[in-house]
Amino acid sequence: MVPMPFLKEAAMKALFIGGTGTISSAISRLAPELGWEIYHLNRGSRKSEFTNAAQIPCDIRAEGTAEIREKIEKAIGSGERFDVVADFIGFVPDHIQKDIDIFNGLCKQFIFISSASAYQKPLSSYLITESTPLSNPYWRYSRDKIACEELLTAKYRENGFPITIVRPSHTYDERSVPLGVHGSKGSWQVLKRMTCGKPVIIHGDGTSLWTLTHSSDFAFAFTRLMGNIHAIGEAVHITSDESVTWNQIYQIIADTLNVKLKAVHIASEYLVKRSEDKYEFRGGLLGDKAHSVVFDNTKLKRLVPEFCAKVRPDEGIPMTIANILANKELQIDDPEFDQWCDQVIRII
Fold first, then answer.
1. Cβ of 242: how many Cβ atoms within 10 Å?
2. pLDDT over threshold 80, residue 48
């Protein structure tokens, strides 16, 4: 073979819209280790830990398409384009249409982060594949994600816009313990109730199956979908293969805290009624967590043969709790939710 010294291997460029959330943070940490050049496009309102990611300060919801494209071209060079653009904060079709307007011709792959909550509720089969119908009458969030997927799929079919749709299920990281019932300020108040010897609410009888995925496992699979030509035009969920019951999840938390679990089981429908729209239980429970979910990851493993979720809940949850206990800023009190729990338990 004749050597071609004029060919130089360039770093693959990826732009993350958002980049500091549960999922995107783990990806932002891993991708540079794999040789990706990462850019974050966000308002910069949250202090970033990612010194190896270039920042493009921008409010994508407020600024005009031409203005945003100008900022991007200034950052990467005129005539250049990203290998991957991933939107972690697109929730409604208007968000996605703006993405299409901005990034059409500026990326080789556009990854939309949808949601596994978009799958049919109630399920017609316990085993969820990517062919499971998308329909969720309980949760507007999920219906909006479905509408976003439909828009992107149409653009792919009509114009070849290079989409990949990723559907996470319940993915957690070191900042928040996965729970079924919690307040608007996160998981800390439930942990605090446990350590104070107070009862905690578990929806239903706690025996439904649920799938938890650690953010590090999600990031491993996601980064292997980035730049993957076989993922173009495809929708795929990324989850663990392991399913556990909600009773097991709460028992892991109690065991980690070295306290006795005082569980009060309450029907999801009753929790929705008692929440009085204060908490998103109709969508979060009836539209998601109240149902047993078992995911078939055959498609993901065909696209990413080396994927295998490694962090079990009884390993990941203790790591999360240890991090929360070590960092005061993650211990956010929620007295309103605490009082609500007391009231509901008292009535029961």
1. 16
2. no
